[in-house]
Design goal:
Blueprint lengths: L2 H39 L9 H32 L6 H24 L1
Length: about 110
């Protein structure tokens, strides 16, 4: 393996590692945020969150995550291209889309069931 292909492999590993860490923390922040709203809503009028607001929050947080990760993708692509390393952003964009859809499904399962 030559140095150029190793750096390309390393750029993918770094990208997917950072996206995985961002996804993990975003998932926990969202769960804690909604749990905090449910905790404070139980003490006051009108009570707990409705199902529609939970679905909206699930989509909102997942789309916000997708935007943040896509911005990171563009920055990563820019930094790697400055070092003359080939980075196929379509693979990473497909990965971001799969992660966003998975988060939506996960949040709907956690918040609604």
């Amino acid at each position: 393996m030559d140095i150029k292909s190793f750096l390309q492999f390393l750029s993918y590993v770094v990208y997917f590692l950072i996206v995985s860490i961002l996804t993990y923390y975003m998932q926990w922040i969202t769960v804690l945020f909604v749990g905090n709203i449910r905790f404070t809503a139980a003490d006051s009028f009108p009570g707990d969150l409705s199902r529609s607001s939970l679905v909206i929050m699930s989509f909102m947080f997942s789309i916000m995550h997708f935007v943040v990760v896509t911005i990171y993708l563009l920055l990563h692509h820019l930094l790697v291209s400055l070092c003359k390393i080939k980075f196929h952003y379509k693979i990473a964009l497909a990965f971001n889309t799969v992660v966003a859809v998975s988060l939506i499904i996960y949040f709907i399962k956690v918040f609604l069931y």
